[in-house]
Each structure stands twice: as structure tokens, then as C-alpha cells.
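Progress narrative, work stream C.
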Amino acid sequence: MCGRYVIKTPPDLMRRAFNYSEQPNFPPRYNVAPTQPIPVVRIDNGQRSFALVRWGLIPSWVQDPRKFSLLINARAEAVLDKPAFRSAMRRRRCLIPADGFYEWKQDGARKRPFYAAGKELVAFAGLWEPWMGPNGEEMETACIITTAANHTLRPLHDRMPAVIPREAFDMWLDCARIDAETAAALLVPAPEDTFAAHEISTAVNRAANDSPALIEPVAPGANDPPPKPPTRARAKTKEDDGQASLF
């Protein structure tokens, strides 16, 4: 799955990588969390276009988002058939720029945070939807598609974001000419060298924390719980045998 990620590539370099016409200016984000605005690249009037949408897809048929589960991820195996994703997979595919993402490895009763750093700027496969409320309110939302984890990341989690290779950007985005079934063939585990993961501080657990320090590796054992203090054995009370003692 993907519940937090990083966007630190400067806007100018991102614009060149994705070839859209807009010139947005945005700061680096080191802890992008669900419900926050995220950048997506999609087709608008036949051209690639940059947009900010809310992370957490709301299908157009939802009446009250407050009563609908937050869809931050869509499983690749379900996007062609599940009603929440089916229409967007056919008509509203997008790319979600990222430099890496966070994953939590289960370790007994605890979870250890790891940063999966991309060797370069990557594009997560995404879906977007426009939503209009009963009172005329409008919102655009998106989710990240996940697939089975590759061997590199499988020790952390069995899922990972689906990554669209640069040479397939047009194929993924062109919903008018490329059908959903053909595009779905791109939703496979990323090559093994796409990401390299290392353990990081538990400071990432708090969405309000957002700084470069979050992606720095920690020393082995840094996230281990502090050792419990040794239990002192209670001294045994000597039974009174009725004999006097000089000591």
C-alpha cells in the first residue's frame, strides 16, 4: 500500500520530466498524507496538464463523502471491475509524481517505518474523479494504484505503488485511444532497482512533521524500545529458629 510519500524534486525539473505547460511553484513535501492536496498530471484538451487534487478518491455517485470510506489506494487487480474505480480507469487515468514513499514493516506488536527512495523522480499510476455535492460544492480527488511488491520491497510489505515508466506515460494517460484493459497491463511491480529502502525515525508517524530529516536513515536499533530495568529480587526473611544471635 502507500499511505505517505515524498515530493522533493524542484518544480522546474518536475515540469520538464512530465512535459506539462503550467508553471506551478510549490515547496518540497516530505510527508504527504491522505486528504491533503497532491499534484497530478493528466490529459486536458489533448495536452498534459498539472493539477492539484485531494488525495482520497470520491466516486461521482457518492452522495455524502462523510459516510464513504477514504480511498487513498486502489488495488490493480480491482480497477477494471470495482464500481469505485471502474469509470476512472476508463476515462480519468493520471500520473502522480513522487520521489519515494514510506512503508511500515510489522515487527511483532510494533511497526518500523522505512523510506523507499526512488533512484529518480517516478510516476505512480493514479486515478482521479470530479465530485459535485448536492449543494453545488465541487472537488477533484485522486488515489494511487498499488500492485504486488517486487522482491526488493517485499520484506517490508506485500504491496507497493504501481510505477508507470516514462516511455509509457502517453499510453497510460491517453484514455481516449487506449482502453482500460490495455492500460491495466502496465500495473506490474516496478523493476528491482527502482527503489532502495532504509529504516527511518518514527517521527514520520506524525503527519504534521514535514522536513528532510524524515528520510534520513537511523542507526540500527534506534527504533527499538528502551530496555526494561532489571527486576530486583526480594531478599528472603530469615525464619526465627529461637536461637539468640550476637549479630
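Work stream C, second folded protein:
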Amino acid sequence: MSASSRRDRVRAEARRLLAAGVAGHVFPGAVACLSWRGRDGQLETTEAFAGVTGPPAQPGKPVHEDTPYDLASLTKPIVATIALRLVARGALALEARAESVLPDAKGTSGGAATIEQLLTHRANLAPWGGLYLDVPHEPGSVSARRWIIAEALRRPDESPTGRSVYSDLGYMIVGEAIARAGGRDLDELLTSEVTRPLGIPDGQMVFAGALSPDRRADLCRRCAATERDDWRGVLVRGEVHDENCAALGGVSGHAGVFATARATNAVGRAMLDSKHGKSDFLPAALVERALAPRPGGTHLLGWDAKSPEQSAAGKRISAQAFGHLGFTGTSIYCDPVRDLVVVLLTNRVCPSRANEKIKGFRPAFHDGVIAVLDAPLD
């Protein structure tokens, strides 16, 4: 089997599986992007897509490879990548306490945590809170943002110290700290530290909440819809699905990025290439530190290791794989053994988050495409 033939077969299997997902009402539509390096070191990339951007009542447009999706918590590894870029050039220290960057955080649970503890979900902060329901200011305003971050800083978790507790609140805080250390808003750092260095085309990876009205209208026309939200009273499209992020103005460390599958794949590819010494995007030693196993859970710095019990990425992906999931139905997994990145973007929450069929589909998808990728050459 030639490299092109292998690529074609992987694409065909991905298309078949995505079409089955649409037919099985796992999601209205989806896009996948896979990249891997062959034995000759040549980078291969393929994409597949199926379905439509909206729910049955409002199907919208057919999905294609450039359809943007709300990445949800896939924002976290992207924000962590920004942090590592700042660390690499000395603008941020992983050992620094959050309060050293955010003076208003002094005396709070979150302020005492280090940047590394926040990025690895080991800051002993509550996992979540419906802050958007309690904010006494107009959602999206500067006052609302200040109030929400202050509340996040003051909400500890009761778990034993050192235990990994996945926390949106921790990433809200660390997003603020990264912006302060970088001297620019988080959306500007996304451009300067990720999309521009990686050659991601303009508009393919953005914080939707930071866009001008005309650019947001364009995103709304192109992107996949998410949920019919009772809080906002609309089918959400072109606006972040996560309510806390929406109340923050759409830009946060824990959610808010919209991107295409290929752009998302580029971030995972940069991690693997930096790890393997094939890119100077990040120092290999810093990547190794970020991906080093830590006691207390599987959460790494910005990423999650493959669980020994079960994995959303299936059984075939290597034990060394790392990745992340997003609530809207998105995922990215990187396999250092195969030098493989698999991105799956769906809007499984459209029209309702009650649809959890993605939990069965996602591992089957990864097992299916990896089986074809691993098939011996003819």
C-alpha cells in the first residue's frame, strides 16, 4: 500500500464512520482531521466530513472541511500552549503563584496556587460553578468579568491536596494570569503565540467573543450550531456554548475558541513535532515537562493522559497517547508512538446536551481509523 493509498483508505474509513454517526443521530455533522508521519518522515494529512451544521428543524449548510466548531474545553490545551510559549521566552514561570501575576488574587485559594498547579488541575479549586446565574452585572461586561474571576478565586475544593480535580475555575484564573503575563488579551496571544507561528490561516482558530460584529456574523454563517439554550433563549450559533464563558464575554482560559479541524490538528502536531525535536515551536524539554505523568490523576499540563481503565480514544491508540475532550462533542488525541494526531469535531449537543451517544461513537471512530492506518502495506 502506497502512502497515497493509505491516506485514501484512512479518509474513506473516516467518512464512513462519520456518515454512520450522522445516520445514528450521534450528531448533526462532524469533521475529522488526521495527520501522521510515515517511516520516511513525510507528513500525511487527511480530512473527512459528513452531515449538516444545524439540527433537523434548522439543518443549515452541509458541513465541509473548513466548518468551524465550538471547541469547548479543547480551548484548555490551546491556552496551555500559549503559557508554554511564554515560559519558553521567560515571560512566565510555571513555579510562580497566580497572585504574583494577579495582585487581586492575594489571600484567595486560587491566588496561592502556582501556574503549573492551575494548568495541571491540581490547585484545589472547585471543578465548576454556575457563576453566570449569580453575576450581578450585565453578562459580558468588564464588571461581570471581574466579579466572575473573583468568585472563581475564592471557591476551593475539599479533595485532598495533590489530587487532580478537573477545574474550569482554575483555567478561568490561569487564563487571566497568562494574559497579564503576556501583556495582551488572550485572543491576541492566541494569534501571536499559536496561529501565526503555526501558519494557521486567518479566521480558522479564534475566540469568537473577541471578533468584530462583521467577523462574528461571518463566523455565525459558517460554523456549526450547538445547543438550544434556555438561559439565552436561542439556538446558540457563533457564540460560545459554555455559559460561564459567555458571561465572561466569550474569552476565557477554559472555553471560547472556535476552530476548524485542520487548525486544531496543527496544535497537536506542533506538540508532537516539538517533543520529537522536529520543530522549534516549543523546547523539547518543556514539552516533556508538560506531558510528564503526575501523581493524583491522569491530568497533565493542558492535556490528559490515556486512562489505563478505559479511553475515549479507544483501545488501539498507544498507552503514551495524550489528548483532551470538549463538552460540545470535540476531541483531540496525539499518539507519540505512531506520530499521529486525530481531531474529531462534532456538535453532539445540538439541539440538546442530553444526547450522549458520542461516548460510544468516539472510541469506535478512533479504533476504526487507527486499524486502517496500521494495516500492513500491500
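The chain is about 35% helix and 15% strand. No further action is required on this item.
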